[in-house]
Design goal:
Layout (H helix, E strand, L loop, with lengths): L1 H11 L4 H23 L6 H11 L2 H8 L12 H29 L5 H32 L30 H20 L5 E6 L2 E7 L3 H28 L4 H22 L7 H9 L9 H34 L2
Antiparallel strand pairs: 1-2
Helix pairs in contact: 1-2, 1-4, 2-3, 5-6, 5-7, 6-8, 7-8, 8-9, 9-11
């Protein structure tokens, strides 16, 4: 009866989580009744199981019939994942903007409450608009490229042989991992695009106000900002693909390798970019004695960046190697 289980899985995976349990029982009972009617007291053969499944039809079509309403903004197979990601990311954006504006209030107090609220809602609306556009475009591309069913063949005539295999636990991708990755990318985009001036060292003293030593030079940072935005967008595409496909395939693992290589290259170009780091940042470390007087701060900072690059490279390498191994080792 494995083929029956595969059919039920192919139908229920396209439906909202709250509908899956009831529908799974309903489908199993329906298939058993149809088989009993065909074979009476005999044991069902594979041919008779195929006949029943063909009568039920393509799992994608059957799942669409069970939907409470038809949603075609992105497509019935990917809409639930798209909407889940959108809700979580919107909440993260609102939190990120609020946190950034709160910190900014203490660092650079606004002239009036009206100015504060105007700046807050302007930043919030702009960030939400960008996030909505990014996520919609990403899922539209996924839909257009038919990534929703990683190994199923979309043909005009459906056959039971087209059913996907039940997912191997070794290949399964936990949605929580992808959602955390998406949230990190969104919060990073908000931070770098709306509150980069708040990134730095916060110095507190007993006899004076809080002091912010900026990490980035404003002009140098703006020139290199497209690199970090592209890198974070690549991360959002990667995590969205993982959310949609939900298991490691050879194609996804190779795409993950390509994404990691591209992201690593952009990361190196960004942190090695000319004019990125502020003079105030180096002056502060000289002031506290961590950079010896007369030493070249850029040379010392270059050594720190080399170590950081090595750590990031190792992380990308492990991620790529582990997922390539799993996809080629366990995938049939």
């Amino acid at each position: 009866m494995e083929k029956v289980e595969r059919y039920i899985y192919a139908v229920t995976k396209r439906l909202p989580q709250k509908q899956r349990s009831d529908l799974e029982q309903e489908l199993r009972s329906l298939i058993e009744d149809m088989l009993t009617e065909k074979v009476k007291d005999d044991k069902a053969t594979e041919k008779e199981i195929d006949q029943v499944l063909i009568e039920l039809g393509d799992p994608a079509v059957l799942a669409d019939r069970y939907r409470a309403k038809r949603n075609y903004l992105i497509g019935p197979e990917n809409y639930e994942t798209y909407f889940l990601v959108l809700k979580i990311v919107v909440a993260a954006v609102a939190f990120g903007i609020t946190l950034a504006m709160t910190i900014g209030f203490f660092v650079e107090p606004p002239g009036s409450i009206f100015e504060l609220f105007l700046k807050y809602f302007s930043a919030l609306f702009g960030a939400l608009l960008q996030v909505f556009a990014w996520i919609t475009v990403i899922f539209a591309i996924i839909e257009h490229q038919n990534f929703s069913i990683s190994e199923e063949l979309k043909t005009e005539t459906w056959y039971p042989a087209d059913l996907p295999e039940l997912p191997d636990k070794n290949l399964a991708i936990k949605p929580a991992e992808s959602l955390v990755g998406l949230l990190f990318a969104v919060l990073a985009i908000i931070l770098f695009n709306t509150a980069e001036h708040l990134i730095g060292i916060y110095s507190f003293s007993d006899d004076g106000p809080m002091r912010l030593i900026p990490l980035f030079d404003p002009e140098g940072f703006r020139a290199l900002l497209p690199l970090i935005n592209i890198m974070l967008a690549i991360g959002m595409v990667k995590e969205s693909l993982k959310l949609v496909i939900r298991k490691w395939t050879k194609g996804l693992a190779l795409a993950n390798l390509a994404f990691n290589l591209l992201s690593f290259g952009l990361f190196v170009l960004f942190i090695r970019g000319e004019g990125l780091w502020s003079d105030a940042f180096f002056a502060f470390w000289t002031e506290v004695g961590l950079i010896p007087s007369g030493a070249d701060p850029l040379a010392l900072w270059g050594q720190v960046l080399t170590g950081l690059i090595a750590i990031v490279a190792l992380g990308f390498l492990i991620d790529s190697a582990v997922n390539l191994y799993k996809s080629f080792r366990y995938q049939q």
